[in-house]
UniProtKB/TrEMBL annotation:
Coverage span on the entire protein: 77 to 359 of 360
UniProt record similarity statement: Belongs to the eukaryotic RecA-like protein family.
Name used for this protein in its record: DNA repair and recombination protein RadA
The gene coding this protein: radA
Native organism: Halorutilus salinus
GO MF annotation terms: ATP binding; ATP-dependent DNA damage sensor activity; damaged DNA binding
Biological processes per GO annotation: DNA recombination; DNA repair
Described purpose of this protein according to its UniProt entry: Involved in DNA repair and in homologous recombination. Binds and assemble on single-stranded DNA to form a nucleoprotein filament. Hydrolyzes ATP in a ssDNA-dependent manner and promotes DNA strand exchange between homologous DNA molecules.
Length: 283
């Protein structure tokens, strides 16, 4: 069994709270209200997973199951271009060194500002490379979503010996279709049974391929409601048993978000702060 890897958010405070990053071979559940930033979090991980380990990634690709049409390629582009200068310079240097462009004769400086003019083109190529390594599948309903998770397993098998095997399986949103389709108490048991199977399929990909799995989940009810607890994720205990990390995201002032680690089996509960910026998640 492969050693457990850590996928970093690259926000040091958050990564520290997570004991070094999101673990492979397990599922991390992020939940929060509408607009709290769950999709932004997931997009950022789809970028970070591709980074070399020394920069907090796993040097692997991502599978992104998109259930609410929230995947935005242009957001990935912004996040790649918004990576820390040192990381970006390293990636560009690697691409330039590989002789992809005829700029071998150009001396590369230590900082991004020192990179040659040709960098713009190479930067666009780099963005394309990142986008190619996010395998996006749109799920039209819950059965389709379940099917896509099963297919994710085949895809991960196929990519296992490639240059970029699967290192992240993201489902955004895990619960939206289930919530919309299985309405009412009478359907609850059935819904939980389906979700449970789905989570085990996801966990299996994560275990077999030493990948991180990240799923997003809405909070149970709207905060104005007198009924239900707005800080409780949908799905209750069933998701609880299969997800190792549960992360509650809530809005704070301006672009700030509070990230709370909840009920982790081997880490203390904690809170940390990040910002959602044009360049992605930042301290
Ligand atoms: P639902 O999917 O609606 O439940 O919400 P979510 O939690 O997935 O929220 P999402 O990740 O879509 O976050 C939306 C928030 O992220 C917005 O309110 C913005 O604050 C921020 N955001 C999204 N896109 C951008 C962007 O391109 N630039 C900046 N600066 N912020 C963005």
């Amino acid at each position: 069994r492969a050693e457990i890897g850590k996928l970093k958010t690259l926000v040091p405070e958050v990564d520290e709270m997570l004991g070094g990053g999101m673990e492979t071979q397990s599922i991390t559940e992020t939940y929060g209200e509408f607009g709290s930033g769950k999709s932004q979090f997931t997009h950022q991980l789809a970028v970070n997973v591709q980074l070399p380990e020394e920069h907090g990634g796993l040097e692997k690709s991502a599978i992104f199951i998109d259930t609410e049409d929230t995947f935005r390629p242009e957001r990935i582009a912004q996040m790649v271009k918004g990576l820390d200068g040192e990381i970006l310079a390293d990636l560009l240097r690697r691409d330039l060194d590989m002789g992809k462009e005829d700029v071998e004769e150009v001396e590369l400086g230590e900082d991004l500002e020192d990179l040659p003019e040709e960098t713009d083109e190479v930067l666009d190529d780099l963005v394309d490379e990142f986008l190619e390594r996010v395998h996006v599948a749109k799920a039209f309903n819950s059965n389709h979503q379940i099917l896509l998770a099963e297919e994710a397993r085949d895809m991960a098998d196929e990519l296992e010996d490639s240059e970029f095997p699967v290192g992240l399986l993201a489902i955004d949103s895990l619960t939206a279709h289930f919530r919309a389709e299985y309405v009412g108490r009478g359907n609850l048991a059935n819904r939980q049974q389906k979700l449970n199977k789905h989570m085990h399929d996801i966990l299996r990909v994560a275990s077999l391929h030493n990948a991180a799995a990240v799923v997003t989940n809405q909070v149970q009810s709207n905060p104005d409601s007198m009924f239900g607890d707005p800080t409780k994720p949908v799905g209750g205990n069933i998701l609880g048993h299969t997800s190792t990390f549960r992360i509650y995201i809530r809005k704070s002032k301006k672009d700030k978000r509070i990230i709370k680690l909840v009920d982790s089996p081997n880490l203390p509960d904690g809170e940390s702060v990040l910002r959602i910026t044009e360049e992605g998640l930042k301290p």
